[in-house]
């Protein structure tokens, strides 16, 4: 798919044409043992069911499931996967060290039109002998997924890439809501939003329910696509995820959208607003 020796197009240009993160082309399996990779997949599956499980609860659960693990290993693996459990309310205001955080702007707000609020999140994708990360930009009102690049690192670059792609294709939202992860409190992400005059909203730290629509998206994607395949590499992952996202956007009706698909709801309401 990518031709490293192409004299006309650079690797970066080819990746952009294929909507593939450049880092995914250079993807090499992470240096984890087969046992740890198996544990990571099991942790991810369980976390979809119980997002309030911290290190201790996850360790106990895995032990009860027959895995000989200690807290030290799970404490290392969960952050590596980008998993942050729900915390009690008293802990939700702790900012990410070294970065400014922003208030949650959606409390009491009626979200009633496309591009009023976008939201974003990152999830872990297991592949054969390693793992990747997937970021999504979603329109909160219509549930339409606007962009979804993958990467082999948790650096902020691929989140900014996803945001720029969504803005290029669909314009700008009034508000962008995310969690307080370092990818979303870093200077590149904040500068991109500020330059586009987009208001910044951030969930309370560890507040699963503040970004519930993307959490539901991850659960559906993994149960209906990711966990049904043994994914070989980044290209295989992209093909599976692209197919499912296409189905989700254009074929999957939502009760909350009067049984319309996200595509239908997004484009119908956008056209109505433009006509008005």
Tell me the number of strands. Answer: 6
Return residue spans where pLDDT drops below 50 for at least 5 consecutive residues.
88-96
CATH class of the largest domain, named: Alpha Beta
Radius of gyration: 19 Å
Q: What's the CATH H-level superfamily name of the largest domain? A: Ribonuclease H-like superfamily/Ribonuclease H
- Please give the CATH architecture of the largest domain: 2-Layer Sandwich
What is the averaged pLDDT score? 84
Question: And the CATH topology of the largest domain?
Answer: Nucleotidyltransferase, domain 5
Given the helix and strand composition, which structural class is it? alpha/beta
- The percent range for strand residues is 5-15%
Helix content: 40-55%
H/E series? HHHHHEEEEHEHHEHHH
Largest sheet: 6 strands, mixed
Domain unit count: 2
Structural notes for this entry:
The protein has 276 residues and is an alpha/beta fold. It has helices spanning 11-17, 22-25, 34-49, 55-64, 71-80, 157-170, 182-185, 187-195, 212-224, 234-250, 262-275; strands at residues 117-127, 130-139, 145-147, 150-151, 175-178, 199-202. It folds into 2 domains: 20-88; 117-275, Ribonuclease H-like superfamily/Ribonuclease H (Nucleotidyltransferase, domain 5, 2-Layer Sandwich), CATH 3.30.420. The chain contains 11 helices and 6 strands. Strand 2 (130-139) and strand 3 form a beta hairpin. The protein is globular, with a radius of gyration of 19 Å. The N and C termini lie far apart (44 Å).
């Amino acid at each position: 798919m990518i031709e490293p020796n192409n004299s006309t197009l650079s690797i970066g240009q080819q990746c952009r044409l294929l909507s593939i993160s450049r880092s995914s082309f250079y993807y090499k399996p992470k240096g984890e043992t087969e046992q740890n990779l198996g544990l990571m997949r099991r942790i991810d599956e369980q976390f979809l069911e119980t997002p309030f499980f911290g290190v201790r609860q996850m360790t106990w659960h895995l032990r009860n499931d027959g895995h000989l693990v200690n807290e030290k290993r799970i404490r290392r693996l969960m952050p590596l996967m980008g998993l942050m459990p729900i915390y009690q309310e008293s802990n939700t205001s702790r900012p990410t060290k070294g970065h400014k955080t922003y208030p949650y702007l959606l409390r009491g707000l009626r979200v009633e039109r496309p591009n009023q609020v976008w939201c974003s999140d990152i999830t872990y994708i297991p592949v054969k002998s390693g793992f990747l990360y997937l970021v999504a930009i979603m329109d909160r009102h219509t549930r339409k997924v606007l962009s979804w690049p993958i990467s082999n690192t948790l650096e902020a670059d691929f989140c900014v890439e996803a945001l720029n792609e969504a803005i290029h294709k669909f314009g700008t939202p009034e508000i962008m809501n995310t969690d307080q992860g370092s990818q979303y409190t870093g200077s590149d992400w904040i500068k991109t939003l500020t330059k586009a005059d987009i208001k910044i909203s951030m969930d309370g730290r560890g507040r699963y329910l503040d970004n519930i629509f993307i959490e539901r998206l991850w659960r559906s994607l993994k149960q209906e696509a990711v966990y049904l395949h043994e994914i070989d590499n980044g290209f295989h992952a992209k093909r599976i995820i692209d197919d499912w996202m296409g189905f989700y956007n254009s074929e999957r009706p939502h009760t909350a959208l009067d049984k319309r698909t996200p595509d239908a709801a997004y484009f119908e309401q956008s056209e109505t607003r433009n006509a008005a």
